[in-house]
Amino acid sequence: MDPLDIVSHLHKIKPVYQPVISAIKHDVVGYEVLGRYEYEGEWQSLGGFFHDPDVPEEFKVEVDQHLLHLALSDMLTHQNSGYLFINRNAKQLMINDGEDLLETLLTFKQKGFPTDRIVIEVTEHDFDEEFEELSHLLLYYKTFGIQIAIDHVGAKSSNIDRIRQLEPHILKIDTKTIRTHNSEGFQDIMFSLSMLAQRIGAALLFENIEDDFQLHFAWKHGGRYYQGFYLARPSFQLLSKEDLPLHLGHKINAYIQREKLLIEQRLFLVRSWEEKVKGILSKWDGPKKVDSFINWATSQFDQESFRMFICNSDGQQVSSNFRKYENSWSQEPLKKGSNWAFRPYFLESVMQMKTSSKGMLSEIYSDIETKDLIRTFSFPLTDHHFLFIDLQYSYMYNHESLLI
Ligand code: CA
Asked: What is the pLDDT of residue 282?
Protein backbone atom coordinates (compact mmCIF):
# COMPACT_ATOMS: atom_id res chain seq x y z
CA MET A 1 0.00 0.00 0.00
CA ASP A 2 1.31 3.41 -0.94
CA PRO A 3 1.42 5.70 2.10
CA LEU A 4 0.16 8.54 -0.05
CA ASP A 5 -2.89 6.46 -0.99
CA ILE A 6 -3.59 5.94 2.66
CA VAL A 7 -3.43 9.61 3.68
CA SER A 8 -5.44 10.73 0.71
CA HIS A 9 -8.22 8.21 1.44
CA LEU A 10 -8.94 8.92 5.06
CA HIS A 11 -12.56 7.86 4.54
CA LYS A 12 -11.28 4.30 4.01
CA ILE A 13 -9.69 4.25 7.46
CA LYS A 14 -11.42 3.00 10.57
CA PRO A 15 -10.32 2.33 14.12
CA VAL A 16 -10.50 -1.11 15.68
CA TYR A 17 -10.52 -1.55 19.43
CA GLN A 18 -8.59 -4.14 21.30
CA PRO A 19 -10.07 -4.62 24.76
CA VAL A 20 -7.89 -4.14 27.83
CA ILE A 21 -9.15 -6.42 30.56
CA SER A 22 -8.71 -6.00 34.28
CA ALA A 23 -7.61 -8.72 36.69
CA ILE A 24 -9.51 -6.98 39.43
CA LYS A 25 -13.10 -7.16 38.19
CA HIS A 26 -12.42 -9.31 35.12
CA ASP A 27 -14.13 -6.76 32.89
CA VAL A 28 -13.13 -4.54 29.96
CA VAL A 29 -11.64 -1.33 31.31
CA GLY A 30 -10.58 0.22 28.04
CA TYR A 31 -9.42 -0.21 24.46
CA GLU A 32 -6.23 0.20 22.52
CA VAL A 33 -6.98 1.95 19.26
CA LEU A 34 -5.48 0.37 16.15
CA GLY A 35 -6.02 1.38 12.54
CA ARG A 36 -7.53 -0.53 9.62
CA TYR A 37 -7.53 0.45 5.96
CA GLU A 38 -9.96 -0.83 3.38
CA TYR A 39 -7.99 -2.20 0.47
CA GLU A 40 -9.53 -4.19 -2.36
CA GLY A 41 -12.57 -4.97 -0.26
CA GLU A 42 -10.62 -6.10 2.79
CA TRP A 43 -9.68 -4.40 6.04
CA GLN A 44 -5.93 -4.37 6.38
CA SER A 45 -3.81 -3.48 9.40
CA LEU A 46 -2.10 -0.09 9.37
CA GLY A 47 0.73 -1.45 11.52
CA GLY A 48 3.10 -1.52 8.57
CA PHE A 49 2.32 2.10 7.73
CA PHE A 50 2.96 3.30 11.27
CA HIS A 51 6.15 1.31 11.79
CA ASP A 52 7.73 2.20 8.45
CA PRO A 53 10.47 4.76 9.12
CA ASP A 54 10.23 5.94 5.50
CA VAL A 55 6.65 7.13 5.90
CA PRO A 56 6.75 10.85 6.75
CA GLU A 57 5.77 11.53 10.36
CA GLU A 58 3.28 14.15 9.14
CA PHE A 59 1.37 11.38 7.34
CA LYS A 60 1.26 9.32 10.49
CA VAL A 61 0.05 12.27 12.53
CA GLU A 62 -2.73 12.89 10.06
CA VAL A 63 -3.92 9.29 10.07
CA ASP A 64 -3.59 9.05 13.85
CA GLN A 65 -5.53 12.26 14.39
CA HIS A 66 -8.27 10.94 12.13
CA LEU A 67 -8.41 7.64 14.03
CA LEU A 68 -8.49 9.48 17.33
CA HIS A 69 -11.44 11.63 16.27
CA LEU A 70 -13.37 8.57 15.18
CA ALA A 71 -12.51 6.67 18.34
CA LEU A 72 -13.43 9.47 20.72
CA SER A 73 -16.69 10.02 18.87
CA ASP A 74 -17.44 6.29 19.03
CA MET A 75 -16.82 6.21 22.76
CA LEU A 76 -19.07 9.21 23.31
CA THR A 77 -21.84 7.87 21.05
CA HIS A 78 -21.84 4.56 22.91
CA GLN A 79 -21.50 6.28 26.27
CA ASN A 80 -18.55 4.03 26.92
CA SER A 81 -16.72 5.00 30.08
CA GLY A 82 -13.52 3.03 29.47
CA TYR A 83 -9.97 4.21 28.87
CA LEU A 84 -8.70 4.88 25.40
CA PHE A 85 -5.13 3.73 24.75
CA ILE A 86 -3.47 5.47 21.80
CA ASN A 87 -0.04 4.81 20.30
CA ARG A 88 2.28 7.68 19.48
CA ASN A 89 5.95 7.65 18.63
CA ALA A 90 8.29 10.33 19.89
CA LYS A 91 8.80 12.02 16.51
CA GLN A 92 5.06 12.24 15.95
CA LEU A 93 4.49 13.75 19.36
CA MET A 94 7.23 16.31 18.84
CA ILE A 95 5.69 17.74 15.68
CA ASN A 96 4.24 21.14 16.50
CA ASP A 97 5.30 20.57 20.12
CA GLY A 98 2.56 18.00 20.56
CA GLU A 99 -0.12 20.72 20.48
CA ASP A 100 -2.34 18.99 17.87
CA LEU A 101 -2.97 16.00 20.03
CA LEU A 102 -3.58 18.09 23.12
CA GLU A 103 -5.99 20.35 21.28
CA THR A 104 -8.05 17.38 20.10
CA LEU A 105 -8.15 15.91 23.57
CA LEU A 106 -9.22 19.22 25.11
CA THR A 107 -11.94 19.66 22.49
CA PHE A 108 -13.31 16.24 23.35
CA LYS A 109 -13.05 17.04 27.02
CA GLN A 110 -15.58 19.81 26.37
CA LYS A 111 -17.78 17.24 24.69
CA GLY A 112 -17.65 14.99 27.72
CA PHE A 113 -14.59 12.74 27.33
CA PRO A 114 -12.31 13.51 30.28
CA THR A 115 -8.57 13.64 29.58
CA ASP A 116 -7.82 11.26 32.43
CA ARG A 117 -9.36 8.46 30.41
CA ILE A 118 -6.73 8.87 27.71
CA VAL A 119 -3.61 6.70 27.91
CA ILE A 120 -0.78 7.63 25.57
CA GLU A 121 1.48 4.69 24.76
CA VAL A 122 5.07 5.54 23.92
CA THR A 123 7.65 2.85 23.33
CA GLU A 124 10.81 2.43 25.29
CA HIS A 125 12.59 2.46 21.96
CA ASP A 126 11.70 6.16 21.66
CA PHE A 127 13.82 7.02 24.66
CA ASP A 128 16.99 6.66 22.67
CA GLU A 129 16.73 10.04 21.00
CA GLU A 130 15.66 13.33 22.42
CA PHE A 131 14.63 11.87 25.71
CA GLU A 132 14.68 15.24 27.46
CA GLU A 133 12.20 16.83 25.04
CA LEU A 134 9.99 13.78 25.08
CA SER A 135 9.93 13.60 28.85
CA HIS A 136 9.09 17.31 29.13
CA LEU A 137 6.20 16.86 26.79
CA LEU A 138 4.89 13.78 28.57
CA LEU A 139 5.16 15.43 31.97
CA TYR A 140 3.27 18.39 30.51
CA TYR A 141 0.53 16.05 29.24
CA LYS A 142 0.34 14.50 32.66
CA THR A 143 -0.62 17.86 34.15
CA PHE A 144 -3.85 17.58 32.13
CA GLY A 145 -4.56 14.23 33.74
CA ILE A 146 -3.53 12.32 30.63
CA GLN A 147 -2.06 8.92 31.51
CA ILE A 148 1.19 7.59 30.16
CA ALA A 149 2.00 3.96 29.35
CA ILE A 150 5.38 2.67 28.29
CA ASP A 151 4.98 0.13 25.52
CA HIS A 152 7.25 -2.92 25.04
CA VAL A 153 8.89 -2.49 28.41
CA GLY A 154 11.74 -4.87 29.15
CA ALA A 155 13.09 -4.91 25.63
CA LYS A 156 15.99 -2.82 26.88
CA SER A 157 16.76 -2.92 30.54
CA SER A 158 19.06 0.09 30.23
CA ASN A 159 16.09 2.42 30.36
CA ILE A 160 15.02 1.75 33.90
CA ASP A 161 16.31 5.10 35.07
CA ARG A 162 14.37 6.94 32.37
CA ILE A 163 11.21 5.04 33.10
CA ARG A 164 11.58 6.01 36.72
CA GLN A 165 11.97 9.65 35.71
CA LEU A 166 8.73 9.60 33.72
CA GLU A 167 6.70 7.84 36.40
CA PRO A 168 4.27 6.37 33.88
CA HIS A 169 0.90 5.06 35.02
CA ILE A 170 1.25 1.78 33.16
CA LEU A 171 4.07 -0.49 32.01
CA LYS A 172 3.10 -2.65 29.05
CA ILE A 173 4.95 -5.93 28.81
CA ASP A 174 4.99 -7.84 25.58
CA THR A 175 4.19 -11.43 26.47
CA LYS A 176 5.90 -12.52 23.25
CA THR A 177 9.14 -11.93 25.11
CA ILE A 178 8.31 -14.89 27.34
CA ARG A 179 8.39 -17.07 24.25
CA THR A 180 11.59 -15.68 22.77
CA HIS A 181 13.72 -15.24 25.90
CA ASN A 182 14.85 -18.22 27.89
CA SER A 183 12.44 -18.35 30.76
CA GLU A 184 15.06 -17.91 33.46
CA GLY A 185 16.33 -14.68 31.89
CA PHE A 186 12.83 -13.40 31.54
CA GLN A 187 12.03 -14.25 35.17
CA ASP A 188 14.86 -11.93 36.17
CA ILE A 189 13.63 -9.14 33.91
CA MET A 190 10.13 -9.62 35.29
CA PHE A 191 11.45 -9.43 38.81
CA SER A 192 13.16 -6.07 38.21
CA LEU A 193 10.17 -4.73 36.33
CA SER A 194 7.71 -5.57 39.05
CA MET A 195 10.00 -4.02 41.65
CA LEU A 196 10.21 -0.91 39.50
CA ALA A 197 6.45 -0.84 38.98
CA GLN A 198 5.90 -1.06 42.72
CA ARG A 199 8.38 1.72 43.39
CA ILE A 200 6.86 4.18 40.97
CA GLY A 201 3.27 3.05 41.48
CA ALA A 202 2.73 1.86 37.91
CA ALA A 203 0.34 -0.93 36.91
CA LEU A 204 1.59 -3.84 34.81
CA LEU A 205 -0.25 -4.59 31.60
CA PHE A 206 0.63 -7.79 29.72
CA GLU A 207 -0.17 -7.69 26.03
CA ASN A 208 -0.09 -10.22 23.21
CA ILE A 209 -1.44 -12.95 25.45
CA GLU A 210 -2.17 -15.86 23.14
CA ASP A 211 -2.74 -18.87 25.35
CA ASP A 212 -3.52 -20.10 28.82
CA PHE A 213 0.14 -20.43 29.80
CA GLN A 214 0.81 -16.77 29.07
CA LEU A 215 -2.33 -15.61 30.84
CA HIS A 216 -1.30 -17.62 33.89
CA PHE A 217 2.20 -16.12 33.69
CA ALA A 218 0.75 -12.59 33.50
CA TRP A 219 -1.54 -13.21 36.45
CA LYS A 220 1.22 -14.77 38.51
CA HIS A 221 3.59 -11.90 37.83
CA GLY A 222 1.29 -9.20 39.06
CA GLY A 223 -0.41 -8.18 35.82
CA ARG A 224 -3.31 -5.89 36.61
CA TYR A 225 -4.35 -5.61 32.95
CA TYR A 226 -4.33 -8.07 30.06
CA GLN A 227 -4.58 -7.81 26.31
CA GLY A 228 -4.29 -10.36 23.53
CA PHE A 229 -6.05 -12.64 21.09
CA TYR A 230 -6.59 -15.23 23.80
CA LEU A 231 -8.91 -12.78 25.56
CA ALA A 232 -10.29 -10.66 22.72
CA ARG A 233 -9.38 -9.76 19.17
CA PRO A 234 -9.43 -6.18 17.95
CA SER A 235 -12.94 -5.35 16.82
CA PHE A 236 -14.78 -2.50 15.11
CA GLN A 237 -17.16 -2.69 18.07
CA LEU A 238 -16.42 -1.60 21.60
CA LEU A 239 -16.68 -5.06 23.12
CA SER A 240 -17.83 -5.49 26.68
CA LYS A 241 -17.34 -8.28 29.20
CA GLU A 242 -20.36 -10.21 27.88
CA ASP A 243 -18.88 -10.30 24.36
CA LEU A 244 -15.65 -11.97 25.41
CA PRO A 245 -15.24 -15.62 24.39
CA LEU A 246 -13.17 -16.42 27.45
CA HIS A 247 -14.50 -16.26 30.99
CA LEU A 248 -11.59 -14.62 32.75
CA GLY A 249 -13.18 -15.07 36.17
CA HIS A 250 -13.20 -18.87 35.76
CA LYS A 251 -9.61 -18.88 34.53
CA ILE A 252 -8.35 -16.76 37.39
CA ASN A 253 -10.26 -18.83 39.89
CA ALA A 254 -8.49 -21.93 38.59
CA TYR A 255 -5.10 -20.18 38.98
CA ILE A 256 -6.01 -19.17 42.51
CA GLN A 257 -7.00 -22.70 43.52
CA ARG A 258 -3.85 -24.17 42.00
CA GLU A 259 -1.62 -21.59 43.64
CA LYS A 260 -3.27 -22.16 47.01
CA LEU A 261 -2.75 -25.89 46.70
CA LEU A 262 0.95 -25.46 45.89
CA ILE A 263 1.46 -23.04 48.77
CA GLU A 264 -0.26 -25.50 51.09
CA GLN A 265 2.01 -28.31 49.89
CA ARG A 266 5.06 -26.13 50.44
CA LEU A 267 3.98 -25.15 53.95
CA PHE A 268 3.41 -28.83 54.68
CA LEU A 269 7.00 -29.61 53.61
CA VAL A 270 8.37 -26.81 55.78
CA ARG A 271 6.37 -28.10 58.73
CA SER A 272 7.71 -31.62 58.20
CA TRP A 273 11.31 -30.31 58.14
CA GLU A 274 10.67 -28.42 61.35
CA GLU A 275 9.47 -31.61 62.95
CA LYS A 276 12.57 -33.45 61.76
CA VAL A 277 14.90 -30.87 63.29
CA LYS A 278 12.90 -30.81 66.52
CA GLY A 279 13.23 -34.58 66.60
CA ILE A 280 17.03 -34.37 66.76
CA LEU A 281 17.26 -31.28 69.00
CA SER A 282 18.04 -33.58 71.92
CA LYS A 283 21.40 -34.19 70.18
CA TRP A 284 22.27 -30.50 70.44
CA ASP A 285 25.12 -30.31 72.87
CA GLY A 286 26.03 -26.64 72.83
CA PRO A 287 28.04 -24.49 70.41
CA LYS A 288 31.29 -26.35 71.04
CA LYS A 289 29.97 -29.50 69.43
CA VAL A 290 28.15 -28.09 66.44
CA ASP A 291 29.87 -30.32 63.90
CA SER A 292 28.81 -33.52 65.55
CA PHE A 293 25.26 -32.17 65.69
CA ILE A 294 25.20 -31.50 61.94
CA ASN A 295 26.73 -34.89 61.35
CA TRP A 296 23.55 -36.28 62.88
CA ALA A 297 21.34 -33.92 60.96
CA THR A 298 22.74 -34.80 57.52
CA SER A 299 21.20 -38.25 57.71
CA GLN A 300 17.80 -36.63 58.29
CA PHE A 301 18.10 -34.40 55.25
CA ASP A 302 20.02 -36.64 52.91
CA GLN A 303 17.28 -36.49 50.26
CA GLU A 304 16.59 -32.78 50.47
CA SER A 305 19.94 -31.14 51.00
CA PHE A 306 23.44 -30.89 49.57
CA ARG A 307 24.91 -28.50 52.14
CA MET A 308 24.33 -27.73 55.81
CA PHE A 309 25.95 -25.42 58.34
CA ILE A 310 25.25 -23.42 61.49
CA CYS A 311 25.59 -19.66 61.99
CA ASN A 312 25.22 -17.48 65.04
CA SER A 313 22.89 -14.48 65.14
CA ASP A 314 25.67 -12.15 63.92
CA GLY A 315 25.89 -14.15 60.71
CA GLN A 316 29.12 -15.90 61.60
CA GLN A 317 29.42 -19.52 60.59
CA VAL A 318 30.28 -21.49 63.72
CA SER A 319 30.36 -24.94 62.14
CA SER A 320 32.14 -26.61 59.25
CA ASN A 321 30.32 -26.90 55.99
CA PHE A 322 28.77 -30.28 55.51
CA ARG A 323 28.73 -30.84 51.81
CA LYS A 324 27.35 -33.74 49.84
CA TYR A 325 29.30 -34.86 46.79
CA GLU A 326 27.76 -37.68 44.80
CA ASN A 327 26.11 -39.56 47.64
CA SER A 328 28.34 -38.99 50.60
CA TRP A 329 28.73 -36.10 52.99
CA SER A 330 32.09 -34.56 53.68
CA GLN A 331 33.17 -31.95 56.16
CA GLU A 332 34.79 -28.67 55.10
CA PRO A 333 36.24 -27.10 58.26
CA LEU A 334 37.77 -24.11 56.46
CA LYS A 335 34.37 -22.49 56.02
CA LYS A 336 34.11 -21.99 59.75
CA GLY A 337 34.37 -18.29 60.59
CA SER A 338 32.81 -17.04 57.36
CA ASN A 339 30.33 -14.24 57.83
CA TRP A 340 27.06 -14.26 55.90
CA ALA A 341 25.33 -11.24 57.42
CA PHE A 342 25.90 -9.21 54.23
CA ARG A 343 23.55 -11.44 52.29
CA PRO A 344 20.13 -10.05 51.48
CA TYR A 345 17.50 -10.91 54.11
CA PHE A 346 20.02 -12.78 56.25
CA LEU A 347 19.61 -10.76 59.44
CA GLU A 348 15.92 -10.26 58.79
CA SER A 349 15.44 -14.04 58.64
CA VAL A 350 17.56 -14.69 61.69
CA MET A 351 15.60 -12.18 63.77
CA GLN A 352 12.30 -13.56 62.47
CA MET A 353 13.34 -17.07 63.47
CA LYS A 354 14.51 -15.88 66.83
CA THR A 355 11.25 -14.12 67.67
CA SER A 356 8.92 -16.73 66.18
CA SER A 357 10.96 -19.84 67.11
CA LYS A 358 9.97 -21.24 63.75
CA GLY A 359 11.83 -22.44 60.70
CA MET A 360 11.88 -20.43 57.49
CA LEU A 361 12.19 -21.16 53.81
CA SER A 362 13.99 -18.67 51.59
CA GLU A 363 12.93 -17.56 48.14
CA ILE A 364 14.60 -19.20 45.16
CA TYR A 365 18.07 -17.83 44.47
CA SER A 366 21.19 -18.74 42.59
CA ASP A 367 23.88 -20.35 44.74
CA ILE A 368 27.21 -18.52 44.61
CA GLU A 369 29.24 -21.72 44.55
CA THR A 370 27.24 -24.08 42.34
CA LYS A 371 25.25 -21.49 40.32
CA ASP A 372 22.26 -23.79 40.73
CA LEU A 373 18.89 -22.44 41.74
CA ILE A 374 18.36 -23.35 45.35
CA ARG A 375 16.37 -22.50 48.45
CA THR A 376 17.47 -22.60 52.05
CA PHE A 377 15.48 -23.92 54.96
CA SER A 378 16.71 -22.52 58.25
CA PHE A 379 15.78 -23.26 61.83
CA PRO A 380 16.56 -21.64 65.21
CA LEU A 381 18.35 -24.26 67.32
CA THR A 382 18.69 -21.74 70.15
CA ASP A 383 18.30 -17.96 70.40
CA HIS A 384 21.84 -17.67 69.04
CA HIS A 385 22.35 -20.64 66.72
CA PHE A 386 20.66 -21.22 63.42
CA LEU A 387 20.81 -24.29 61.25
CA PHE A 388 20.93 -23.70 57.50
CA ILE A 389 19.88 -26.47 55.16
CA ASP A 390 20.44 -25.75 51.47
CA LEU A 391 18.01 -27.69 49.30
CA GLN A 392 19.36 -29.33 46.19
CA TYR A 393 17.83 -28.44 42.89
CA SER A 394 17.04 -32.03 41.94
CA TYR A 395 14.87 -32.28 45.05
CA MET A 396 13.13 -28.99 44.30
CA TYR A 397 12.59 -30.07 40.73
CA ASN A 398 10.60 -33.04 41.95
CA HIS A 399 8.45 -30.87 44.20
CA GLU A 400 6.65 -28.30 42.16
CA SER A 401 5.60 -26.38 45.24
CA LEU A 402 9.25 -25.50 45.83
CA LEU A 403 9.61 -23.98 42.40
CA ILE A 404 7.08 -21.21 42.85
CA1 CA B 1 0.72 -0.42 21.79
From this structure: 93
Which residues lie across from 38 on neighbouring strands?
A: 43
How does strand 223-226 pair with strand 305-312?
Answer: unpaired
Residue 339 structural domain? 273-403
Q: How far apart are CA 138 and CA 123, in angstroms?
A: 12
The answer to whether the pTM exceeds 0.90 is no
Better-predicted residue by pLDDT, 113 or 127: 113
Give a yes or no: residue 243 inside a domain: no
CA of 380 to the centre of ligand 1 (A): 51
Examine the pLDDT at 184 and tell me if it is beyond 90.
no
Report yes or no on 383 lying in a domain. yes
The CATH number of residue 344's host domain is 3.30.450.20
Would residue 244 count as lying in a domain? no
Q: Ligand 1: distance of its center to the CA of 252 in Å?
A: 24
CA atoms of 240 and 27, how far apart (whole Å): 7
| Count of domains observed in the chain | 2
Ligand 1 mean position, distance from CA 140 (Å) = 21
Is 279 in the same domain as 212?
Answer: no
List the one residue out of 238, 207, 247, 240 whose CA is nearest residue 224.
207
Sheet of 376-380: strand order equals 328-332, 321-325, 305-312, 385-391, 376-380, 360-361
Q: Mind listing the pLDDT tens digit for each residue in 59-96? A: 999 999 999 999 999 999 999 999 999 999 988 898 88
DSSP symbols for 168-232: -SEEEEETHHHHHS-HHHHHHHHHHHHHHHHHHTPEEEEE---SHHHHHHHHHTTEEEE-STTT-
What is the CA(62)–ligand 1 centre distance, in A?
Answer: 18
Are 223 and 318 within one domain? no
